[in-house]
Amino acid sequence: MVPGADISEDLLAELIDDSWNQVVNKLPKKVQQRLRPE
């Protein structure tokens, strides 16, 4: 997918963020903490 007539750049970024979060949520908590520094 690329931004263009069918999908906005904002929507593409949101889809990528949601996908990344779903993957990270499946990892052990210790790994999640390293990937999501607070």
Automatic annotation (TrEMBL):
<dbReference type="InterPro" id="IPR038056">
    <property type="entry name" value="YjbR-like_sf"/>
</dbReference>
<protein>
    <submittedName>
        <fullName>Uncharacterized protein conserved in bacteria</fullName>
    </submittedName>
</protein>
